[in-house]
Amino acid sequence: MERLKLRYSDALKSLMTLEEILREPFSIIVRDAAIQRFEYTFEALWKFLKEYLKEKEGIISNSPKACFKEIFSSGFLTEGDTVRCMEMTDRRNDTSHTHKEEVAHLIYSKIKGYYTLMKNLLEQFGDKIG
Q1: What are the structural domain ranges in the chain?
Q2: Which of 34, 41, 97, 112 has a CB 3.0–4.6 Å from the CB of 14, allowing a cystine?
Q3: What's the maximum distance between 2 C-alpha atoms anywhere in the chain?
Q4: Count of other CB atoms within 10 angstroms of residue 21
Q5: How far apart are CA 130 and CA 125, in angstroms?
Q6: How far apart are CA 32 and CA 95, in angstroms?
Q7: For the purposes of burial, counting CB atoms within 10 Å of the CB of 99, is it exposed (0-12), middle (13-18) or buried (19 or more)?
Q8: pLDDT tens, 95-108?
Q9: Percent helix, strand, coil in the chain (nearest 5)?
Q10: Each residue's pLDDT tens digit, 31-53
Q11: Does residue 30 contact residue 21 with C-beta atoms inside 8 Å?
């Protein structure tokens, strides 16, 4: 259970840093920092979900998309939000290509929506983690 609490705490802290950068006025440096923070927040989120599924549901999921599908099956996501999580996973995978302006622009343009999606998802687990 301690590992689950630690993963949850890591995800929340990461989310706070993402929220912080999203309040900054746009610049290329802010865009790049937001993409980096999105990347590690996404990683913290899916690793928390993986641990939650393992500890609380007895389900082993070894990829972000598998975790989101299982979280949907467990009732934490709507079908629409699950589709957005799959898209978010694809954008996370694109972060290694941010040297291309069009890719960086696309990812940055989606981050505020992904922030809200991740925040809403994490909030559902507060009472369940303790």
Answers
A1: 2-129
A2: 41
A3: 44
A4: 18
A5: 9
A6: 10
A7: exposed
A8: 988 789 999 999 99
A9: 80, 0, 20
A10: 999 999 999 999 999 999 999 99
A11: yes
Residue given tokens 């393992």 in the structure block: 54
Retrieve residue 11's tokens: 């995800």
Q: Which residue has the tokens 């799959």?
A: 86
Q: Are 71 and 51 in contact (CB under 8 A)?
A: no
The residue among 46, 54, 72, 39 whose CA lies nearest residue 1 is 54
CATH superfamily name and code, 2-129 = Nucleotidyltransferases  domain 2 (1.20.120.330)
Cα 89 vs. chain centroid, distance in angstroms?
A: 8
User: Which stretch of DSSP H or E encloses residue 53?
Assistant: none
CA proximity to 111, closest of 20, 49, 50: 20
